[in-house]
């Protein structure tokens, strides 16, 4: 398969580890009737849409956290008195 992203996506969808297993899964997939493939494609699209929505929310939360950290006032570093420590 020429596209590494597509290969990774299909490997994940078909739950395979090797290129040979992926090729066999794709061959098996092509043997299903068009109606079953169409239904499965719709389910896959729905799953991908949900995952993108989840990732978008995670990015939004991460961005919010980074903005909060960037605007938080800096505390002065803790200073340890060597004489007190060495006693």
Folded structure, characterized:
- The protein contains 4 helices and no strands.
- The protein has one domain (9-70).
- The protein has 87 residues and is mostly helical.
- The protein is elongated, with a radius of gyration of 25 Å.
- Helix 1 (4-14) packs across helix 2.
Sequence stretches where pLDDT stays below 50 over 5 or more residues = none
Structural class: mainly alpha
The number of domains is 1
Order of helices and strands: HHHH
- The count of strands amounts to 0
Largest sheet: none
How many distinct helices? Answer: 4
User: What is the CA–CA distance across the termini?
Assistant: 69 Å
Layout of helices and strands, plus pairs?
Layout: H1 4-14, H2 19-31, H3 34-71, H4 82-86
Describe the structure concisely.
Helices cover 77% and strands 0% of the residues.
Provide key terms for this protein:
87 residues; single chain; mainly alpha
């Amino acid at each position: 398969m020429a596209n590494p992203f597509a290969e990774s996506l299909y490997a994940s969808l078909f739950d395979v580890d090797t290129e040979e297993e992926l090729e066999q899964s794709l061959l098996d997939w092509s043997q299903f009737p068009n109606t079953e493939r169409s239904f499965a494609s719709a389910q896959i699209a729905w799953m991908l849409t949900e995952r993108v929505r989840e990732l978008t929310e995670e990015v939004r939360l991460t961005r919010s956290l980074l903005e909060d950290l960037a605007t938080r006032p800096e505390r002065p570093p803790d200073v340890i008195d060597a004489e007190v420590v060495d006693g």
